[in-house]
Fold this protein.
Amino acid sequence: MTSQAIGFIGLGNMGLPMARRLIEAGHRLSVYNRSPERAALLLETGAKLARTPREAVEPGGVVITMVADDRALDQVTLGADGVLGALGAGGVHLSMSTVAVDTAKRMDALHAERGASYLCAPVFGRPPAAAAGKLWIALSGAEAAKRRVLPLLAPLSQGVKDFGDVPGAANVVKLAGNFMIAAAIESIAEACALAEKSGIDRRALVELMAGSLFDCPVYRLYGEGVALRRYQPAAFRSVLGLKDISLVLAAAAQAQTPMPFASLLRDRLLGLVAKGHGDLDWTAIDRAVSEDAGLAPGA
Amino acid sequence: MTSQAIGFIGLGNMGLPMARRLIEAGHRLSVYNRSPERAALLLETGAKLARTPREAVEPGGVVITMVADDRALDQVTLGADGVLGALGAGGVHLSMSTVAVDTAKRMDALHAERGASYLCAPVFGRPPAAAAGKLWIALSGAEAAKRRVLPLLAPLSQGVKDFGDVPGAANVVKLAGNFMIAAAIESIAEACALAEKSGIDRRALVELMAGSLFDCPVYRLYGEGVALRRYQPAAFRSVLGLKDISLVLAAAAQAQTPMPFASLLRDRLLGLVAKGHGDLDWTAIDRAVSEDAGLAPGA
Amino acid sequence: MTSQAIGFIGLGNMGLPMARRLIEAGHRLSVYNRSPERAALLLETGAKLARTPREAVEPGGVVITMVADDRALDQVTLGADGVLGALGAGGVHLSMSTVAVDTAKRMDALHAERGASYLCAPVFGRPPAAAAGKLWIALSGAEAAKRRVLPLLAPLSQGVKDFGDVPGAANVVKLAGNFMIAAAIESIAEACALAEKSGIDRRALVELMAGSLFDCPVYRLYGEGVALRRYQPAAFRSVLGLKDISLVLAAAAQAQTPMPFASLLRDRLLGLVAKGHGDLDWTAIDRAVSEDAGLAPGA
Amino acid sequence: MTSQAIGFIGLGNMGLPMARRLIEAGHRLSVYNRSPERAALLLETGAKLARTPREAVEPGGVVITMVADDRALDQVTLGADGVLGALGAGGVHLSMSTVAVDTAKRMDALHAERGASYLCAPVFGRPPAAAAGKLWIALSGAEAAKRRVLPLLAPLSQGVKDFGDVPGAANVVKLAGNFMIAAAIESIAEACALAEKSGIDRRALVELMAGSLFDCPVYRLYGEGVALRRYQPAAFRSVLGLKDISLVLAAAAQAQTPMPFASLLRDRLLGLVAKGHGDLDWTAIDRAVSEDAGLAPGA
């Protein structure tokens, strides 16, 4: 594997530090980004610059994509200069973006037609975690392909969890995780509203909880935002939260699974967007909770 | 303080190990329990056995109560041989049970009338945490009284959080915490139902989440119960969960705070009780979620 | 029956026109109202003025109460000069106020102890319907007592429905009816918000629905209020709506019946009150729906 | 108009009686149905049988479609022998099926490109109402086209409501109406569950409500089904109800309108389908409500 160049497509806030980690771990990378300035940042590392997604791919090789959304994935994969045309039999497409379950299933089928493998490997974590190789990765797809990419995932993550070979399985996991985060935000926000309106310091409540029973990254991070009612700058915008919860509900509809908390979160986020707050961080779920309780909203 | 006997009322699954911790820390205890056999277990430790709650109290001293519910607190406090009759001016009632906010306010007023102080100090944690002195404690009440009891709380807990002097404040915090736990259960259960019906291993989902973003006691403990759909033996029965969430909503009504997640959880738990599952652990929230998704229920 | 005076307690917006109807139908009334000016309005009709509730009652006779709430019912019934002291064996208390189910059960037991009967007969309809004898009445209680009062209900109503002899049954029916009205308001409001934000005339939507599939008093009346977003003057204030929906949920808790629509309506009304809109008509449920959709609120 | 043949596509349970009404009113019809036996039923009436949708259309004429769903509408309109190819400039497509708002918008644009008009005219009512000319019709589209078709709608309906010229407006109205029906079912079901578990006759409750405040077709019809817990035979299957409420939520997402009752109804219907009850009438919403309350489910 070390003798072969890995294609890497998408050098955004997450992709760039991930590519760096791979290079530092000794992998040879052929990189592509829509705006080439981002790719240029990797020149000094010895990475090879590709002018198209296709050019980053070696037949039968491995290509990693880390792009913004379903449409971007479609373009770099299926477009005229897309990776699928060059990947060929035995090739592996390691898709690390967060996309719809249906998109994953469609991609899986299109790759299989050409003898290639499509792996879902969405990540949990933000840019600093990416830079530190501390992401968490959910992985699904064909066994042989998964074994082949594990050495690539090692320098990126502190944990890789295998979810079998059902197409799109890891995407469901990613969406379920995002749902759980949003539910935690609503839960903290309701507890804080109750506290504040009962004359209790909401920050003290969060400090106790996030320091004891809920002493974990999600409650510490979002607990602070909710306690301080600070919804900017946005690490993850409400409008994207709405998109993800809508994808959760689409997956739930397909799987025939009622998810009442998810339904409620969709209405919350839809309300935020309707009121013009779609660009606030999705911690702003707390803004709606506060408003409903007659509290002056944060910002 | 060390020269004075501390009254300790209520030697149940939580109270007994807590009393032991205090004795081991060098405090002299005068203990009372409704069924005296429990109190006898402390004889060898040098604790003095009181025949009534009142007998455990020294005028102007400190008495701790750790009883089952609002009614039991009423009896040991206001009954014919209750502690309030003996506590007198300067006395401190350190109430560690989980009771309604209104009960706390009423107790606060009754103690104040006699020049005594009523402190709310409900705990988070189960019997093993109590035995290890690893509880978390929310504290509210008069400042001077709080300073006086802090040395007693030290051997019981790994953390004490002060919530000011609003009567009942710490009870609101305890209820808010229990609400957050129930919300976490529902959230995990919905994510697991989605996973399972999408052909994904629910245990793997929980292992990933509870080992990364949600790496904290609540998600580890309840995550395992939900993943395995194991709702017995009950550490906290659904019927008690229903009682607590109803207390949350009562406090929310008083504070004029809509809490839609709490409302949904009340309906969940009410449904469990209506179907005859009130004695299952409240992890059985997952049972209802599973049933709604057409999955065979756990037990 | 016609030879015997009927006691009538409570001459408010509903009670006064009801008492008039009974007098016009040939019944002799002995009337009491807390503020005697209201009672004086009936002097010319030949009604006898009682100075206390008790004075309006003949032993073994029939007394009707139509008062504001549970507390008022308690006072006129159980107070020092209350009706219960005079009613005696064979007497019938026809209680037409909207009160809690628990209050009805308690009253039932207290009357039974004295050999008297307590009938629940809450009404649907507003003052104009009362004046026209067009109320709808739900009735529950002992069979013999019900037969005895039917001639009194005839001039008041266009329909009396018997709900058996379970204590408080008719009160549950009254609360269920008020719940159904609130649910209809929310339903119309959500449909109107969808229409308006889709560029459709909300009044045209309501006109179509309330003129066809939903051609009935509730949808016509509340449909107009929602369509026009007119929440004043209040015929039934939001704060009273909140009280009633809370009574519904209390009855539902006792009967172990999850009612998710009712839970949602409670949160809606709680939010209205929290924001200071408790004095608007409960049609203002639409105000909250509109706000959530980013529409400028009505008034 | 009377001198011109009207095309009529789709002779199902609704379309056949509607076509008959038009013929009886003196209109000349050219009819098409996928299975020609249905069309043959109209032979004796003088209707002309078309072998393809296209054959039923006269250039510049009027064609009515009344088909099962979006896909069927696509086929008869855009297929090789579809109506759009023949309709031409000045033609009017009167679309009376219940389809998605997006479908309506797309159709509107495709017709406009060819100088034809696409009118949305979904109907409220069941086959007996269609046979009696007692449907209610929501209408939207270009003014001139609407004026042209009004004489055709008269023999079909007891009321036509105009919703302007926003493409798809009448479809939103149809979906909003179906949402309101589903909300009424849930509301009646919750009230009945509360009544039954309180020892009260649910039929008596419904009789009172549907005979007074809610004396209208929806509450009479669905009230009876809920009261008797009779969910078969299905007049409108739960799986179709789920489809319609999902279309409502799709329209609500596009219009940025939170609809919490609709979200809850979606979860209800999704649960019914997940449990294998998708073929029961959507009155079976009551089945889920009953089950949650621990009542033995109806059938």
In short: Chain D has a mean pLDDT of 95.
